[in-house]
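Input structure tokens:
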């Protein structure tokens, strides 16, 4: 147990260092190439995004000899090219990698596979799109006033980002005890048989807390209000679970630890105004995600929570020729493998759309 814990710490620490360094280096090299796009281009298919959805779509389209152009972004929405997986360490649930690999390694492999079949990957952020008429128009960051580029079909794979609370100490213990994905990180050895906390009071928080009881010795749900927002069935499930304790009127104030790993939370009871430390080795945020849909808002139908609406079982959006894949259209599963699956769907839908236009 001790050895596996140590191994995990080293891997997590090294992984974080690697991804931070990599992000910084890639940012510097990206900045060096600025501004780059002064020539207007026309593409058959343009993919916006660089996570598993974007690269899977690219692999399928490139293999179908529709040379796609993929804009991987330049820290678009604060996420490095490669997407959310570049912010994590070990990925143990992506099929095909029985030993696990880091998020950055997985994304590097996907990018390599996209390029191998002829995808053009451009390290720029798409700042603006106009999908009101075809061919669609788009502009990249720093080129918003230039002539637009055009495309016959567009795949949105811009992802989403987990909301964070930015508590003092959060940066230090991010991925060293703090996570925003219980399904992704719950099984990591540092959380096994340890007290854990989930912040949030909705369905996801109840679901994540229940899920974490498989691993933690106890799971505290920290709820700001005096009641849960979750559906009745989810509330009952959480309330009945002997390993879950719901702390109402409770707010997080600070993430504390030994400099390496989280070991406590400073909390406030907003009713009694009492502050105290709760010993926990894991903190999971379940306070929602923000889909990266601002560039299409008002042009493509979105749900109230901002996610792109797609025709069930497809990547088809309300605008013919615009397809959406990955977390940007999925508020439910939000996994690398489901994103990759929907990237495949978007590519096949786009291919069919183009064939029908010929
Ligand atoms: C900490 C953490 C750990 C996780 N661990 C796992 C795990 O172990 N297993 C698992 O299956 N899932 C995991 N996930 C979830 C997984 O990362 C996501 O489900 C998946 O990455 C979503 O892929 P995506 O292709 O939709 O887009 P994202 O990965 O969200 O990538 C979208 C990319 O598009 C870019 N972009 C956005 N807007 C623009 C624009 N206008 N122009 C150009 N580029 C743009 C962004 O910068 C980003 O790089 C984890 C998530 C997090 C946050």
């Amino acid at each position: 147990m001790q050895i596996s814990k140590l191994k995990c710490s080293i891997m997590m620490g090294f992984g974080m260092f690697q991804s931070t360094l990599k992000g910084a280096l890639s940012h510097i090299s990206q900045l060096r190439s600025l501004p780059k796009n002064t020539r207007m281009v026309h593409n058959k298919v343009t993919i916006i995004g660089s996570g598993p959805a974007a690269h899977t779509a690219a692999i399928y389209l490139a293999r179908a000899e529709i040379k796609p152009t993929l804009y991987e972004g330049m820290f678009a929405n604060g996420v490095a090219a490669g997407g959310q997986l570049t912010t994590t360490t070990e990925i143990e649930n992506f099929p095909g990698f029985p030993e696990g690999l880091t998020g950055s390694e997985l994304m590097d492999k996907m990018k390599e596979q996209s390029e191998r079949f002829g995808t053009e990957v451009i390290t720029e952020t798409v700042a603006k799109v106009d999908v009101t008429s075809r061919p669609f128009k788009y502009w990249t960051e720093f080129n918003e006033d230039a002539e637009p580029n055009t495309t016959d079909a567009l795949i949105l794979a811009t992802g989403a980002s987990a909301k964070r609370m930015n508590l003092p100490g959060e940066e230090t213990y991010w991925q060293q005890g703090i996570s925003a994905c219980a399904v992704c990180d719950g099984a990591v050895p540092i959380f096994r048989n340890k007290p854990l906390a989930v912040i949030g009071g909705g369905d996801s928080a109840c679901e994540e807390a229940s899920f974490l009881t498989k691993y933690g010795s106890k799971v505290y749900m920290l709820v700001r209000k005096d009641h849960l927002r979750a559906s009745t069935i989810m509330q009952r499930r959480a309330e009945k679970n002997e390993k879950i304790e719901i702390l109402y009127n409770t707010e997080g104030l600070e993430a504390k630890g030994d400099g390496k790993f989280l070991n406590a939370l400073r909390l406030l009871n907003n009713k009694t105004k009492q502050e105290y430390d709760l010993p926990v080795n894991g903190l999971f945020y379940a306070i929602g995600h923000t889909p990266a849909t601002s560039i299409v808002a008002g042009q493509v139908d979105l749900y109230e929570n901002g996610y792109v609406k797609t025709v069930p079982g497809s990547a088809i959006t309300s605008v013919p020729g615009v397809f959406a894949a990955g977390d940007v259209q999925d508020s439910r599963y939000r996994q690398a493998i489901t994103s990759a699956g929907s990237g495949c769907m978007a590519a096949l839908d786009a291919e069919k759309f183009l064939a029908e236009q010929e």
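The longest strand covers residues 149-156. Helices lie at 2-32, 52-63, 103-116, 170-173, 182-185, 203-212, 232-240, 336-357.
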